[in-house]
Amino acid sequence: MRIVFLNPSGQMGGAEVALLDMLASLREAAPELTLELIVSDGGSVATRAAALGVVTTVLPFPASLSRLGDASLAGPNSNGSNRLQLLRQLAFANPGIAGYVSRLRKLLRQRRPDVIHSNGFKMHLLGAMARPRGVPLVWHVHDYVQSRPFMAALLKVFRKRCSLAIVNSNSVGQDLKAVCGDAFPIQTIYNGVDTKVFSPSGERLDLDFLSGLPPAEPGTIRVGLLGTLARWKGHETFLTALSLLAPDIPVRGYVIGDALYQTDGSQTSLAELQDIARRLGISSRVGFTGFVAEPASAMRALDVVVHASTQREPFGLVIVEAMACGRAVVIGEAGGAAELIDVGENALGHTPGDAAQLAERITQLATDPELRARLGAAGRATAEQRFNRTRLAGELAPIYESLRNSGRQSAIKRQRSDVSEQRTVERGQSRENRD
């Protein structure tokens, strides 16, 4: 069985980490599968997939497609409700889309997949347009759709070309059903983590050095927020919470990560966040490391990991990774993130966007080493039991097999229908000749 994965970005984000964990689990547990990846650029995703033995092809996006998204399409009076207008606007904003679909369709025909598995909104749409007839298409949805009106409208247009949507939380599944209808087939598969890489033991980064700060005083509690600089990830909330901490609490904060995606208007920048820190008067109390290649090493250097998303979090991979590293975690209790934890048992929670409440949780953990240790140990156990990536192959392989079988049955029905239609035409022609 040949599975071709489609991914819209060559750089590492949460969806890309989830994709590589799936590929690794499938490669280890089901080596008989042929796994291939088509990706938009030759970044770290392509390199890591190839290292797993996955045949990887780079099919570059035109620049206009790379920048395309709800933030770049939406005008001041746009709501995405007129589908025809939406499709015309999409074509106008991105004249190269037809050419890309043609190239992708040609490549897919050459690869002859049994199943296509797309891993991002742009590839969901491109895969639906380029999918060879009869090949099942799986949309792997990692984000809320309703918050992106243009993408939501387009997914609704193309939903009948998708055989199944895999979602990373029940919360995302409910959101997708609201767009595509209750009859739309959806299955929840939580993301996994490599609990050998994300573990309490291992290298620890020098976060002070990476941030250009002097070494912290002994006994300093290190509190960090890791992730891309998407505007909804709550970096400003985190910085504000740090500014509300009592001066005598020995805490140093860290913003770990950098801008990633090319979509216009979707991210803040390190310079913006550094300006906010200066305005809040906490420049000496917070460091900005920029991108780190090994997030597990960064997490192990922290005492507390903060998840501060101001909107519903579809899943929250950093939450599970930090738990696997045995760190105490504070999360924003909303959406899929709330499905991952038991508050007070393996993590603490706060209301998303509430900087004062987040400051209270950080204070609670900074001043209670026994609580940090208890939550860290419970979080590690939860990650091993519920989120170890080894389980992914056992959940995915039966789905692929079922879709392949249904695709074959559909192909047989089409062939029989075509043969029957041809015979009907031939009989009609024969009668005309006799007449």
Could you write a compact summary of the structure shown?
With 435 residues, this protein is of the alpha/beta class. Helix content is 47%, strand content 14%.
Low-confidence blocks of residues = 75-81, 411-416
Helix content estimate: 40-55%
Indicate the radius of gyration in whole angstroms.
Answer: 24 Å
Strand order of the largest sheet: 3-2-1-4-5-6-7
The number of helical segments is: 17
Q: What is the total tally of β strands? A: 13
Give the distance, in angstroms, between the N- and C-terminal Cα atoms: 51 Å
Which H/E pattern describes the elements? Answer: EHEHEHHHHEHEHEHEHEHEHEHEHEEHHH
Q: What summary fits the major beta sheet?
A: 7 strands, parallel
The 3D shape can be described as elongated
User: Quick check: average pLDDT?
Assistant: 88
> In what range is the share of β-strand residues?
5-15%
Structural class: alpha/beta
Written description of the protein model:
This protein has 435 residues and is α/β, with parallel strands linked by helices. 47% of the residues lie in helices and 14% in strands. The chain contains 17 helices and 13 strands. The strands form 2 sheets. The protein has a 7-stranded parallel sheet with strand order 3-2-1-4-5-6-7, sandwiched between helices. The protein has a 6-stranded parallel sheet with strand order 10-9-8-11-12-13, with helices on both faces. The longest helix has 43 residues. The N and C termini lie far apart (51 Å). About 3% of the residues have low confidence.
